[in-house]
Amino acid sequence: MPPLLKMIGKRLLSAIVLLWGVTVVTFLLVNVVPGDAAAANLSQQAYDDPEIRAAFEAKWGLDQPIWVQYVRYLGNILQGDLGTSQQTHRPVAEDLSQYVPATIEIALPAMALAIVIAVGLGMLAAMRKNRPTDTGIRSAALVGLSTPPFWLALVALYVFFYLLGWVPNGGRLSNIYDPPPAVTGMYTVDAAIAGQWDVFGDALWHLVLPVGILTALTVSGLLRFVRSAMIEVLDAEYIRSAIAKGLPRRIITWRHVFRAGLLPVLTVSGLMLASLLGGAVLVEQVLSWPGLGQYAYKSAISLDLQAILGVTLFIAVVYTLINLLVDVLYSVIDPRIGAK
Amino acid sequence: MRSLTAKLAVPAGAVALTLALAGCAGGNSTSNAGDQTLTVDTSFVVKTLDPGTVYEQTGNIAVHALYDTLVTYEGSDVTTLQPELAESWEQSSDGTTWTFTLRDDAVFSDGAAVTAEDAVFSLNRLKNLQGSASQTVQGLDFAAEGDDTVVVTSATPNPDVPVILAMPAASVLNSAEAKKLGATDAEDAATSDQIGTQLDTASLGSGPYVLKSYDPSTKIVLTANPKYWGEQPAYSRVVIQNVDVQNQKLTISKAKGDEIALDLSGPQAAELSDDLQVSGVADTSYFLSLNQDPAVSAVTSNPAFIKALRLTVDGEGLAKLFGEGATPAAGLVPPAFAGALDESENPVQDLDGAKKLLADAGLSDVKVALVYPAITYRGVDLGTIVTKVQQDAKKAGIEIELTPQPINVFLQSQSEGKNEINFSPNSLNYPASSSLVNNMAPGASTSLRTGWTLERADQSAIDASNAVTAELTPEGRNEAMIEWQHVMNEVSPYIALANNAGIVVATSDLTGADYTPAGWTVDLAAIAGK
């Protein structure tokens, strides 16, 4: 069996153990932290009524010992049932199928844009190390890193929606439109599939602000890694030799520096993408973007156990798959790694 | 090398393309631009649109527009009940039986007549589903007499029955259709009702609107019910959209169409342009509750300490923190409801008096812990309110240690009854001031959370509470509530601080966008253009 396939097989097997561990830890944590799901979901008077409280606990299986709840949950998962959310009263899988595409729709473009911008600016900063260009880029990145996402979202909303009127105030679609027929759950894609170009344009317009904010936040984090990785490569002996040999700058930059500097960037990008897919809670909240972040936040404050477990499991799967993907890409970019 | 202008041309072009696409109307358009649309901005708090289990604010707003109740309120007035499905109602002389006579022309959205059987089915289902709102109808029995008479009997005399039946949770469902979907009003409905989320996809009511779509995270779309038995609403389409509280001020300020916002705070409303209309009523009270169990706190269970802390409260100053529409609290009943104390009875801060009480009681270097939920409620950070309470108390020598808790933790710790002082907002379950007695009388549920048992209560508090429940008419109860509050201000562990207003902000060309403390925030069907 080729080493790459063997590696993928091993990683997938260990992922199963990892995901099981995630369910155990999450289940325990949710049950250990202070708070009572009945108190969080019922009115005060209803909570004080023993009959109503008992009915609530029986309905959601909370009247059973924790280990019974867990075994039931695990059994259901194995049958593809993630349970029912207390906050939406819908199957968690159905909720995830709605909220995950909404998050993907802003996370993927934001990550792609961030990589392009961060790699470009990072390389420029590395090549102009300690010069005004480098200082300017580093300072901008520092400002970006120090800016709270919530505050940035509010300021961006104020400037681009309120003052300039260039973007809508949030949400996924203007009120005059109905969502396109669901295929992928991503409105831009679904509208394009359905040929609803006015809806497509409106959905795209609604992407501008959240994608812009997430891009800005991600660029700031990524830039530092790109710059350090590139500086390290630029200091390598083979690059100095290439310069001494009089190789054209363009070839040195793109064929040698860029490719070699990309490896550490790939790892960080993978983690950042996983983090974005896990939901940009505060940005989603301010911009009323109905993604995974909002769902996770609302689940947490209402102690919606099934939803919390569903979100956690999804994020664990995302991290596992992205790490695997990064490792595979490592092997492709640097075949020496795959051979080890 | 390409010029900077050329480099900028690509992103600029992309934005232009986006804007152009946004503006164009494709051949396969799904635009509702031709409809008369009212947009409602609110931060969603919704779990269901099933009247039997609806309890949260956003759900109540929608359900009130989709369904009818036997009786209702108009505008912001919650003192006079109005007929809706019932054209008349009367109470028996012993106060235990209410008879509602239904109008004969009301129909559901499918054209079927609304009957007494539908009402009884819906109310029994509400009672037996054991949801949050079920508690309000416990102790009530419902029966149909013919097609047009609903008889409600109460285990004890209860003049508040019509008020309870005006709440969105008491809405009347098309029982035949609901049964087909698996609904039941049986005593075991909590486990045997199988309707699930089907009422989140299609409504079964007789209200002015029908449900077009429901997404608990983005928007709820209602369209006018073509078979509505009453006057057609002005807007053929209503979109209730989820807008974060922080975002609502900007959104309503830029609104070009017919739009309302429901979650702005008093300070935010005060900053709005004069073009916008603001409607608000002080209907939520904020109060401290001091634990009466000496094992929990020897200080807070000391009557002299309660009186002293009460004298440190600066009601005017607290009301200013809440902003427009807020008032100091003279008693536990907010001014929106009949039975509230007159503003002339607003307490006056008396720090010297507080110091003297503490000294006389031998209380020096007093230190107590105040627990509160670390949340922003109606746009006001509760931390700012308790900090003001803390500062005022300190002037009299009382040191309060503030303990913010996540809302889940607070709800649990409050219910365990081990906190020295709790601080939280309080809204009435239904717009009758006497409903407070059900929870706040000695030995009642809220009181037990602060250790205020019948044994520990002053007899005058028990007598005043009994005097309220002994009254057989709403007017009598409201009158008794005045005296009840006087007594509570003297001997209860509750210290009313201030009343905050619920607010509806509307664009200038709207009428009928009145905030109501009735439970549904605003009557969407009553809103029209000028």
UniProtKB/TrEMBL annotation, chain A:
InterPro entries, per the entry: BPD_transp_1_N (IPR045621), MetI-like (IPR000515), MetI-like_sf (IPR035906)
TM regions (residue ranges): 12-33, 106-127, 139-164, 203-223, 257-283, 303-326
Keyword Nucleus tagged: no
Keyword tags: Cell membrane, Membrane, Transmembrane, Transmembrane helix, Transport
Domain of life assignment: Bacteria
Stored PROSITE patterns: ABC_TM1
Every ABC transmembrane type-1 domain range: 100-330
Subcellular location field: Cell membrane
A Pfam family reported for this protein in Swiss-Prot or TrEMBL: BPD_transp_1
UniProt similarity note: Belongs to the binding-protein-dependent transport system permease family.
Protein's name according to its UniProt entry: ABC transporter permease
Species this protein is from: Agromyces soli
TrEMBL record, chain B:
A Pfam family: SBP_bac_5
Keyword Phosphoprotein part of the UniProt annotation: no
Main localisation: other
Keywords from the UniProt entry: Signal, Transport
Residue ranges of every copy of the Solute-binding protein family domain listed in the record: 81-441
Signal sequence region: 1-22
Subcellular location, record wording: Cell envelope
Keyword Transcription found: no
Similarity remark: Belongs to the bacterial solute-binding protein 5 family.
Protein name: ABC transporter substrate-binding protein
